[in-house]
Amino acid sequence: MNLVKNHTRIALFFFFLTALLGVLLRAYPLADFSFNYRYMVHAHSHIALLGWVYIGLTAVIYRLFLRETKQFKTYRNIFRATLVALVGMLATFPLWGYHPYSIFFSTLFILVSYAFTWFFIRQTPQRYRKRYSFKCVKAGLYYMVVSSLGPWALGLIMNTLGSTSVWYKTAIYFYLHFQYNGWFLMALCGFLFFILESRKAPVNPGRSRLFYRMLNTGIILSFFLSVLWTEPHHIFYVLGLLGAVIQLWAYTVFFNIVRSSRIFSGGKTGLSKSVVFLLKLSGTLLAVKLLLQCFSAVPEIAKIAYHTPGFIIGYLHWTFLGVISLALFAFFSYFRLWTLSRRAIGIYLAGFFITEFLIFYKGVALWLQWPLPEHYYLLLFSGSILFPVATGILFFQNLKTFNGN
C-alpha cells in the first residue's frame, strides 16, 4: 500500500509543477520574460497529462487490480522508466521544444506506457476479468495505445507536410480526443464500477453492457468532432453529432446505474460526504462537457469554437482540471491513498471557476468583439496562483502524513 501511496504523491507533485508552469505562462503577458512561450506550453501540457493524470490513474489501477502480482520488479522497473521519461521531458521541453532530446524522452514514455498496458493485461487476476471495472480500464488503456498514433504521425507529418498542414493539428486532436474521452474517462468509469462491485451494490448487467457498448461507439464516432474545424463534407458533421449523442446517452445510462446503486445516499453502504461531493461535481461538469460536444456539431458553432483559442483552452481545462482531476481527488481519498484537505479543495475550486470564467469570457469577447476587462491578464494570473497553492497544500500535507506513517 505504501508503494501506491508514494506514487500518488509523485503524481500530485507533478500536478504541483504543472500548476507552477501554468502560473509562469499566465505571467508571460505581464512581464518581460526571455523563455520561449510555446516551449513552456509543451512542458506544461506533457507534465499535466503524463505526470499527474497518467501516474495517478496507473497508481489506482495497480492498487485495484495488480497488488497481488508476483512480478513486482517488472512493475517497479516500468515505473522507474516512466519517471526517467517524465523528468527528461520536464528538463528538455522548456529549453528546446520538440527537439531530438525531448522526442527521445517522449518516445520512451510511449513505449513504457505500452509496457504497462501489457503488464496490466497479463497480470490482472482471473477473478477480475469478467467485471466491468476491468473491461472499462482495459478499454481505456487500449485507447491510450490508439492515441499514441497521433504523436507517431507527427514526426512524419512535420518532415513531409510541415507544421502548418491540416494533418498536423488533426494528429494532435486525435491524440487529445482518445486521451481525454477514451483513456482518462474510461479508466475513471472503471474505478467507479470497482466501488460498486466491491460493495456488492445492485447493478443491472443489461444496463452495464449497454453503457459499455454505447460509450465505446460514442468515443470512436465523436472523434469526427475534432476535424470539423476543417469544414469537411457534411457526413462528418452527422457522424460527429451521432457520436456526441451516443456518448451523452451512454453516460446517462451510467449515471442511472450509479444512482440506483444508492452509494451516494450515505450511511454504512454509502461514500463519505467529501467523496460524494467531488464525484457529483465531476459528474455535473462532465454533463456540461457532453452537452458542449453536441452543440459543437452545429457547423456555425464548430467554426467559431475551433477558430477561437479561448474556447478550446477553456474546454480542455474544463475537462482536465474539472472532470478528471476532481474525480481523481475523490478516488485517491476513497481508496485511502491520501487525505483530502477541505481548505485545499476550496482554494482549488475557486481557482478553477475564476479562471474558467475568465478564459471563456475572453473567447466570447473575441467572438462578439467586446472589450476585455481592465487588468484582464492580471486577474487571470491571480486566479491561476490558486492552483499551486491548493496542490502545494495537498502535497505537503500528504507528504507529512506519509512520513509520519
UniProtKB/TrEMBL annotation:
SUPFAM superfamilies in the cross-refs: Cytochrome c oxidase subunit I-like
Coiled-coil regions listed in the entry: none
Transmembrane segments: 43-66, 78-97, 103-121, 141-168, 180-198, 210-229, 235-258, 270-292, 312-335, 347-370, 376-396
Annotated keywords: Membrane, Transmembrane, Transmembrane helix
Protein's name according to its UniProt entry: Uncharacterized protein
